[in-house]
C-alpha cells in the first residue's frame, strides 16, 4: 500500500524509510537501491528534518507505521520544543489562526522580547492539521550575511543540484501541497527575506508563511498582526508567578506587589521572565525596589519604543546583578551568532578555564534566564535570545576584550571546520555542520582583512563542507574567498582550481571554469609550482573543447594551442603521472580545430596515461575523449561500451571532492545519451532514475527531462506527461538557459499530444522544444523526428519529400538513428522513389530502436511479414509499447491486439 507522506517525503525517501525500519545499514540500503552511500546519507538527514525526529531509531519506528499503512502526520521541521508553559495570548492565538486561514503571508510585528517567537511556535503547532504537507520553523537569528535560503534549506533538509538554485530546491520541496513555513526573527535580514518570501509564495501555491519581525516585510498581500505586551492584572501576573515558581517552588508573593512589578515591566514577557528568575534571591519587594532605580529613564512613557528601552534596562539590571565571573562569560557569549555547546563556550570564553568551571557559570546564567537551553537527542545546546545577545555584544564592545574573543572565536571555528572535514564519510557531520554553519560563516566574515593562515584555513574548510552539504553556490564563494585570504600563491591556486570544479557542479560548463583555471595557473606559476601550472592550463584547454557551448564567444583555436604549448613547457618533461595524463587529454582535444571532436589515436594515448594514475576521475575524463572520437566515426556500440565503463567508475569517485564533480555530472549525461543512441530504452530509463537519485547529477528539471524522452519512446505516455510540467517549470525557474538537452523531451511531450489528437497541446510543447534552443537549426533534430513520426501516423504525405530530406540532414548526436528510421518509413508511406535507398541508409545505424523501425518500414515497402514480425520482436526487447502496437496493426492476425494496446495508451488507430 502506497502511503502519502504529509511531510513531503519523496518516493525514494519512503523506500529508504522502510529499509531503516528493517534496521539496514546505509551501505545495505545503497546496495539494494543501486545508489551511492552518500545519497542514502542525504535521504536519512532529510527524513530526520522532515519528520522532526532525533535519530535513525525514531525513523525506524515511523517506518513501522508506513508498512502498516498508517499515515504519518505532517510535521513542522525545526519546531522548537518548549521547556516552559505558555501563558495567555488566547485572543491573539485565535486572531492569528483566523488570519492565517485567509492570508498567505502573515507577519507578527512587535518589539524584541514581546513574545513573538513563542506565539509563532504555538500557532505553528496548533495549525498542524491545516497543513498536511508539513513545513518548517526556521530561526533566522543566526542567518547573518543573508544566508536565509541556507537556513530554510538546512531545516528542510534540501540542497542544491546543478542548474538549480538553493531557493528553487526549497520551492521544489514545498511544492504544491499545503505547507507552513515559519520565518522567525526576520528584521535583521529583511532585505533578503522579503524577495525570498515572494518567490516561495509564487512558486508554492499551497504554502503559507508565518513571519515574526520588528517591522513588516513589505511584500504584496502581507497581513501584519501587531503584538503588544501581556495585559496587566491578568496574563502578565500569571506569567510572573509561573516563572518565579519554577525558579523557587516555595515562592509566595503579595498579589499587589506582583501587579506593581508587572506594571513597572510594561507587561513585556522577556522582562517579566528575567525579573522572575531573580525572585528566589531578592524576593518580590527586593525586586520592586531594585527595579525602580533602573526604570526611571523611561518614567512617563509607555509607547512601544519606551517599552523596548524598558526591556533593555531590565536586561542591564539583570546583568549588573551578575558577579564578575558571570559578567565576563555573558559578554563573551555575544561572539556566537547561533546556538553553542559547552566545548564551544570553553574554547571562546577564556584560555585555560576548566571545563567544569565554564559549565557551572553557564548554568548560573541559564538559571537567571539570560541564556536559554535546547536539547535534541540528549545533547544540550545554549543560545542567547536576540535582544539579550545585542546587549551582550554591546558589553563585549565596551570591554577591551573584543579582539581577543573574536580571535578565539575564529580559532574555534577553524578547528571545528577542519575537524568536521575529517568525518565527511560518516552520518553525523551533516547535522553538526548545520548546527555550527552560521557561526563558521560569521567567524570568517569578522576575521581581519587580508591574507592569513586562520581565515584561509576556515574559508577552505567551509568551502569544502558547503560543497559536501551541497550548498554549491556558497561553496564556490568560499573557495574564492579562500584564494583571496591565502597566505601563499600556491594555496590560492589550489583554491581557484577547486572553485573551477565547483563551478562545473553548479552547472557552468564553460566560461567561468575556464577563467578560474587560468587564474589558478597564474597563482601556481607565481608559486613556482610547474606541475600545478601545467595541470590548470591543460584543464583550461580541455574545458574549452569539451564544453564549448558554455562560452559566450568561442575561444580561438590558436589561443588554445598556445595554452597547450605553455602547459607542456611548464611541465618540462615532468615524470608526474597526473601531469602527463592531463597533458595527454588536452592534446587529444586540441588536435583539431573542429568543435566537439577529439583525435582518436591521441584519445587512446590519453586513456592509457590516465589508467597509469589509477585515478577514476582522470580515467573517466580521458574515456570521454575516446567516446567523442567514436561518436564522430559513428560507432554507437563503442560509445555505449565506453560509457558503461565510465558508469562503473562512479562509485570510486569521492562524493566530497569537488574535482570529481565535472566527471560525475558528465558521466550521467553522456551515458544516458549513449544508451539512447543505441536505442536501449531500459538502460536510458535506468540511468535517468540514477540521475534523479544522485545529488550531484543534475537539477530536478534536468533529471526529469532525462526520463521523459525514453518514457515516451517506451510508450509510457502518462508518466512522461506527469514529469513534463516539473521539467518545464524547473527550466523556467532556472532562467530559461539555452540548451539542447531540454529540446528532445519537450518534443517528445509534443509527440504524445499529437498522437492523442490534442493539436493545441502538440503546438504548445513543440513551440517549447524550439524555445529552449532558440530556433530550429537547418539540420535534423528530435523535433524533426517528431514531425515525421506524426506525419506517418496521420498519413500526411503532401510535404513528405522535404521532411524526409531534413530527417537525413543530421549532425553527430544520438538522435539521427531515430530521425532517419522514421524518415525512411515516411518515404515508404509517401511512395517516394528513393525510399529503398533511404531505407538502406537508415539500416546502417547501430540502434535497437532504429533496427526495429527500419524492419517495419521494410515490411511496409516489400510486404515482408517476416520483417514485420522481427520489428515486433525488436520493439518488445526494448519495451517500446506504442511502436509495437502500431506494428501489430500491420499483421492481420494480430491487428486486434494492436488496436487494444493503442486504446489503452489513449491513441487512435493510425491512418496508415
Radius of gyration: 32 Å
- Uncertain segments are 1-7, 68-72, 296-307
Determine the fraction of residues in helical runs and give it as a percent range.
Answer: 55-70%
How many helices in DSSP terms?
A: 44
**How large a portion of the residues is in β-strands, by DSSP E?**
under 5%
Structural category is: mainly alpha
Shape: globular
Oligomer: single chain
Number of strands: 8
Distance between the termini: 43 Å
Question: Mind summarizing the main beta sheet?
Answer: 6 strands, parallel
Spatial order of the strands in the main sheet?
1-3-4-5-2-6
Overall pLDDT metric:
85
Model description:
- The protein has 912 residues and is mostly helical.
- It has a six-stranded parallel β-sheet with strand order 1-3-4-5-2-6, with helices on both faces.
- Helix 30 (636-649) packs antiparallel against helix 31 (661-677).
- The longest helix has 20 residues, at 402-421.
- The chain starts with 10 loop residues before the first helix and ends in an 8-residue tail after the last helix.
- Pfam families: GerE, HTH_77.
